[in-house]
Specification:
Layout lengths: L3 E5 L9 H10 L4 E5 H4 L7 H9 L3 E7 L7 H10 L17 E7 L17 H4 L1 H9 L3 E2 L3 E3 L7 H19 L18 H4 L6
Parallel strand pairs: 1-2, 1-3, 3-4, 4-5, 4-6
Helix pairs in contact: 1-7
The chain binds flavin mononucleotide (FMN).
Flavin mononucleotide binds next to helix 1.
């Protein structure tokens, strides 16, 4: 089984509706470790050794966060800046992450229609995540399609619960290497794979 590390970042978890539920869906999943970055480092002083060890102990690294200003909350950028050291994560001798998978689990206030050229946010969500995709590539990791929960400004409890179940399905498929049965590299979002994932095997 693959080991999954969830690098979770929510700067105001007490006000969260979506991630508070999503994170509960992964806490008791087999082979899944949740690392709450704001809880571990409320002052943003990241323990680089601890983080590098955690990454090395896992095969798949998922960054879970609400989209803030078309990007991630600040601690994730801080994490990249400090943890992904030259000749560790990248560079001619930087092979620590080679062969691992990396992906994003995000929520955004805007609905799918707002992330169209004609919509308020103009660009599709995957384009706002390009720094993650290219960082994965630079570090010789495989970038997974992101899972996106849209429209959180008007989301219902039922849709949040369904999203939590979908997230659990994704984690189970990743942990059990069930993705290879699908053409997942061709998907732009993990959301597209859910109908097939639910039929290629259960938790
Ligand atoms: C500071 C801030 C910036 C935000 N920026 C965006 C944004 O760029 N695009 C968007 O769709 N939603 C944006 N939102 C909405 C959040 O993404 C949304 O509230 C969050 O995904 C809901 O998850 P939660 O209930 O776990 O907090 C922003 C919210 C805050 C507080």
């Amino acid at each position: 089984m693959a080991r999954i590390l969830i690098q979770f970042a929510h700067p105001a978890l007490s006000k969260s509706q979506v991630h508070r539920v999503l994170i509960d869906y992964c806490r008791n999943q087999k082979n899944v470790t949740v690392n709450d970055l704001y809880e571990s480092y409320p002052d943003m002083f990241i323990d680089v050794d601890r983080e590098q060890k955690l990454v090395l102990q896992n095969d798949i690294i998922l960054f879970q966060f609400p989209l803030y200003w078309y990007s991630s909350p600040a601690i994730i950028k801080q994490w990249f800046d400090l943890v992904l050291e030259h000749n560790w994560a990248y560079g001619s001798r930087g092979n620590a992450l080679a062969g691992k998978k990396m992906g994003c689990i995000i929520s955004c206030g805007g609905g799918p229609d707002t992330y169209l050229p004609t919509g308020r946010n103009h660009y599709p969500v995957d384009q706002f995540l390009l720094p993650f995709e290219q960082t994965a590539r630079l570090c010789k990791m495989e970038y997974l399609p992101p899972f996106v929960v849209y429209g959180t400004f008007h989301i219902t409890k039922e849709v949040i619960r369904q999203s939590g179940e979908q997230y659990q399905t994704i984690l189970s498929a990743l942990a059990n290497d069930r993705l290879n049965a699908l053409n997942y590299q061709e998907a732009t979002y993990f959301n597209e794979l859910l109908p097939d994932l639910q039929t290629v095997g259960q938790v």
